[in-house]
Amino acid sequence: MTIEKLLNSSIISRRSFNVCKSHRLRDLNEILEYYRDKKSFDKLQNCGRRSNEELTSLCIKYINFGENVFNASTYRSNDFVKAIKNLNNIQCEIIDNFIKKNFENLSQRSKNTLIQYLKGDLNIKNINDIILFNEDFRFQSLDKVGPKSSLELKNFTHLILSFVEDVLNIEDYKGLVITKNRLIIEKTFSISSIPNEILESQSIFNLVDFLISKNAIFGKNESIIFQEAFKIFDNQPELTLDEIAEKINISRERVRQILNGILENLFNNLQFLKTIEDDLYLKYGIDHNLNVINIDDDLNNQINEVNNTNFSIEFNTFIIYSYLSDIFDLVGEIEDVMLPKYFNSRDRHNWDNLYLVRQELTALFDFINFVDDIERRENDRIEDTYCFHFRSYLSNFTKGVNASITSLIFPVAEKIINQEFDLIIDLDDNIVFKRNTVKQVHEYAIEALEKLGLPSKIEDIYKLIELNYPEITKSQDALRGSIQRTSEIISFGRSGTYGLKKWEIEREGIKGGTIKDIILEYLQDKTEPIHILELLNEVHKYRDMTNVRNINTNLKLDPQNQFIIFNQGFVGLRSKTYNSKLCNLPKFLGKNITNYIKQNDTINRLYVEEYFSKQLDINLENMKYIIEHLIDYNFIEVDNQNNLSI
Hints:
Largest sheet: 3 strands, antiparallel
Structural class: mainly alpha
Helix content: 40-55%
Number of helices: 34
Mean pLDDT: 87
Distance between the termini: 149 Å
Strand content: 5-15%
């Protein structure tokens, strides 16, 4: 049957027809003859994966090796049986891959028959035990297997036996490695003519570099976008979506869609690397027993020099991740690291690096939320540098783990925040977040007061600021305005003197505000009015030059009218309700006291205080203030023996 008839009968596609025509395979016999010799069509120029599968499937269905060619008894010799049973691991792996690859070319009926009869196990030793060396086995005796399927399965069996014989004839380990790797790549990608040095090297980097050069990992447009948009190579120029779209004559939106598809499929397309036996520790010192693997410039240069490649740190990291993904997870966003930053995500951290972290740790610690929290803290307005204990902080992101696991997480988390944020854990295991705001004028005033060390006049504060930071503030008035807008600096009345709010707690005898403010604060928690002399004692702690007249004047002239002055010099707040005899003392109590003293000529002060304390039903301390007030205003005299007289 000519290839024209095969095409017209829809037995082969136009693509397969063109392949056959260009290589002078003019009819079915020549196609079968080529297959007997090569066992595949993938080395033919322009023969892709689909054409290879189509032509192989055609041959398996129509080839007839004849009894002289296929005679299972030929392979049932003791030596051959022994050789099959003694296949080593790599030989078994090679043959099993070959079986799986060619199994896909069978018809669905034949596939179902094998799966059912072999109970889903397609490895060589199972096929050997059940089919190849079972003298009583006949495909035609199987249920629902007709002549066509029987012939197809016989030829499939012959193909396996021939390949087993080829593998057994490979004498050295290197030859087995080449055969194994070639099968894996042929099975995964539509590619042929793989150089032996690539296969022999067992280098995952060399292999990926070769596949990229052959546009084998992705289709045509995908390969172009993959190499132009992703940070695959060192010092690679970054192109915008518009530049890439113009280069390959498609829309910007289509480029974006293809990029998303590449991101989704890149990991899966590199999964074949797991079957390559590359010794990363011996070649590059990459120890997969570590908890974290992070590729730096030196290691990346070493990898590129050994393999004569020019991959970026980002892509070499991803290659290693694809190879070790059974034991490591990738921490970081591939989109952030491997694509140009067309825009930054605002609701999360935009990663600068990728990290390989052991799965035991990623299962117990949420690295993504941890880094996002650090990002939020870094982006917050930090007006004062602050720190906290890093080890304790990590517990916010762990999943009920003990201290020993936290000790393993600590250095990994520390490495990540150092490389992502340039943050360093200090010797006390504290993480420090430094101020990120511009220093305000009032903060210069605080610094000046710290240096002066005591309450100071505005002119002294201004001079010190001008000395250290010229032109920070325009004038003393401007400085005063800035100071009055912060709660960290206190003023002392209207004297133009200022100090630090914290000094009120740290030092004795310092309190900001006016006399009125001091009295207002003192009266806040009192349940009865307080005598003006007691208030004077309180004010004297902070303003030793104040007298009763100053207090009276301040209280009476209060524009907010917050104070009420009762008889005999007692003061309260209008905002409070008092249930006290002190609110209703007689207006002319002083006259009563002086008359009482006149009647006795001279009398002991304590006696008078106790007498009137009982008469008025007030405590002795308040009565003492009343007598003292009369003495201060010269209504009563007191001698050195504490006797009172008029």
